[in-house]
Amino acid sequence: MTVRLLTYDGRQYLMPTLLSWTVRRTGAVPADELEAEAVYDGELQEILPDVNRFAAYQDDTLILRGVVDEYQVEASADGLLLRLSGRGMAALLLDNEAEAAVYQQATMAEILRTHVTPWGVSCRQWREMSCLDYRVSSGSSQWKALSDFTRRAGGFVPYFTPEGELVAEPLAGSGARWSIDSTAPVLSCLRREKRYGVISQVLIRDRNQRVMHTVENTGFCRRGGQRRHVLYMPGGSSYDAMRYTGDYQIAQSQKGTRQTEVVLSGPFSAQPGDIVDLSYEPLKLYGTYDVVEALTSGGDAGETTTLTLEER
Known about the structure:
alpha+beta, 13-stranded mixed sheet, globular
C-alpha cells in the first residue's frame, strides 16, 4: 500500500513507507475511510499544512481517493511518527449544508447541478428521473438532498467509485462473485442481529389540516417490537408523501440489523456491491450475500480483510 499526498495547488508527494494502514470501503455513506501511519520525514513539515487530498494505491491500482481530515506528528519512544486520516469524496457532500428548497418537479440533472457539482464532485454516470413536490429541509447536507431524491425517485442510494466519482445509479460493485467456503482463508466469522433502534410504527401528522397517517412495520410488530416515532410534516402534504416518509423511516431503522462478518487473510478480497456465495459450516451459514462494507488492514501482522455481508 502506498499513499500519495496532494496539495491544494496541485503538488504531489509520496507518504513515507507505511507502518500500518486501514481502508474502509462502503461505496456510499458512511464515507469510505483511510487511516495510515508512517515514519515521519522532516521534509514534509512545510508540505503537510497544504495537503488537502490523498490517493491510496495497492500495487499501482487506485483503491481510494479522498479528502484529508487530519494529520498528526508525534515524537515518542517509538520515534517520529506521522498519522493521517481521511474520507472518500462523499465527505464533500456530507460536510456542506444545502439551502432549504421546494421543487415542483425535480430532475436528476437539476439535483446534480445544484447539490453535487458545485462542491467539487464529478458525476458522469447517472440515471435520468424526476420527482414531483420534492423538498429539501433546512439543515440537510448536500448528500441528504441527493440521496433522498434518488431514494424517492428511483429507490436506490448513489455511490462513489475508488477514483472519487459519484455514480447516480444503484451500486453494482466490480461485477465479481466470490465463493467463501471451507477452502477459503477464513480467520473468523460472526453473525449479528441488532434490534435497538428498529421502528415499529410511524405516526405522521399534518400540522395545518390536522390529518394523521400511521405506517406500521408489520413484521417487527408481529414479533412484539415496540418503538413509535411521531413526525410532523408541512401543511398540505400529500398522502403519497406521508406514506413514503413513514416507509423510509422504517426502512432506515432496519438497515444493517442482520449482518455477517467474515475476516479473511489477504488484502482487498472484495468490495461493496460484490456478491458472495457463503457456505460456513460452524455457524450453519449458507446462502447468497451482498458485500456492504470491506475493511482491509495491513501492518506487522500481515494483511486481512473484513467483509460485512447482508443476505439477499
